[in-house]
Amino acid sequence: MPPRPRLRIGLIGLGAISRFYLAALERAPSLHLAAVCDRDPDALSPLRGRVPCYLDHRELLAEGGLDAVVVCAPNHMHAPLCRDVLAAGLPVCVEKPLATLPADGAALQAEARLRKITLFTAFHRRYNRPVRALVDRLPAGVPVTAVRVRYLERIEEHIGRDSWYLDPGRCGGGCVADNGPNAFDLVRVLLGPVSVSGASIARDAAGVDRRALVRLHSPGGAAAAVELDWSYAGERHGRLGASGRRPHRLRRHARRLPRVQGIAVARVRGRAGGLRAAGARRRGPGGRGRARRPRAGGRGLPGRARGAAGRGTGAAEPG
Ligand SMILES: NC(=O)c1ccc[n+]([C@@H]2O[C@H](COP(=O)([O-])OP(=O)(O)OC[C@H]3O[C@@H](n4cnc5c(N)ncnc54)[C@H](O)[C@@H]3O)[C@@H](O)[C@H]2O)c1
């Protein structure tokens, strides 16, 4: 049987996170980077001569020859870019959040359904090894009763040339819109569908969500707490161990460890200590930090641990 042709992928947005995709595409034998697009010519420079480059995504789409598109532009651009990709009849993998407004997200979903085209938000945390290990360790048939997910970092350490992260309009608000999706997705992995029971959010003078505690619950009564912090100072290399028994203690412990970035704890019925998926992680390919970033020109890979838990193992696992 002849080998299946490689899927031709177009990549829109060549900033920090794109380098994980570029590295993964290089390693995936079934995928081929067929075209890239960034409105900033400097971002295209390292790829010129290697792959067709476009400054406008509409030109990339009009040129054809693609089987799917990855969208890695800033949050506020996800909806319009995805809309155009779907309108071109192409499946799309978009970085989180799917959109900055719920109505835009719902419209994209409806459009994808109508066209029978895949629309995939890259909730990568659920695929990270520590998370998979935690899920594997959950005893079969014993429901998880409590989950805690943390995402602590100082966002100023991770902003590139464009400070859209600190513009609530372009980011979608702040830590809740930006780090929340992967954290909430982990809760969903462990508890299934959940609803929000309450949230407290602290904003700065510019209206950016800097800290948040979001509580969620499942229909079966399991509870989840998601802690998000964009003002977490003093990060340092380190690892955090934790159990689910004394969450208030864990929090204090986490505050003492300067480089805490994420932790997910699942408590299961009849099990005192709980289970954990990694904990503090080093800056590096696992997140949005500066260390150990594969560089493709411009600034390095995001090194903060996006979302909860998980130690990345190179460019394949962006936090
Ligand atoms: N999952 C994760 O761990 C993770 C980590 C970092 C970023 N992200 C997400 O990835 C996305 C990008 O974040 P980033 O940190 O790489 O941002 P960035 O600012 O480093 O890069 C964004 C790039 O998109 C380009 N761009 C902006 N508008 C464009 C347009 N209309 N068409 C084409 N290119 C355009 C910019 O020029 C820039 O090069 C965001 O949605 C962010 O939330 C996810």
What is the H-and-E element order?
Answer: EHEHEHEHEHEHEHHHEEEHEE
**Low-pLDDT segments, ≥5 res:** 236-261, 279-287, 289-319
Q: How many strands appear in the DSSP assignment?
A: 12
Radius of gyration: 20 Å
Strand order of the largest sheet: 3-2-1-4-5-6
What is the overall pLDDT average? 80
Output the number of helix runs.
Answer: 10
Share of helix, binned:
25-40%
Please give the largest β-sheet.
6 strands, parallel
Could you say which overall geometry the principal axes of the C-alpha atoms support? globular
CATH architecture of the largest domain: 2-Layer Sandwich
Distance between the termini: 38 Å
CATH superfamily of the largest domain: Dihydrodipicolinate Reductase, domain 2
- Helix-and-strand structural type: alpha/beta
Bound molecules: nicotinamide-adenine-dinucleotide
Notes on the structure:
It is a single chain. This protein has 319 residues and is of the alpha/beta class. It has two domains: 116 residues, NAD(P)-binding Rossmann-like Domain (Rossmann fold), CATH 3.40.50.720; 153 residues, Dihydrodipicolinate Reductase, domain 2 (2-Layer Sandwich). 26% of the residues lie in helices and 22% in strands. The protein has ten helices and twelve strands. The strands form two sheets. A six-stranded parallel β-sheet has the order 3-2-1-4-5-6, sandwiched between helices. It has a six-stranded mixed β-sheet with strand order 8-9-10-7-11-12, with helices on one face. Helix 5 links the parallel strand 5 and strand 6. Helix 4 packs parallel to helix 5. The longest helix is centred in the middle third of the chain and has 14 residues. The two termini are 38 Å apart. The C terminus is likely disordered.
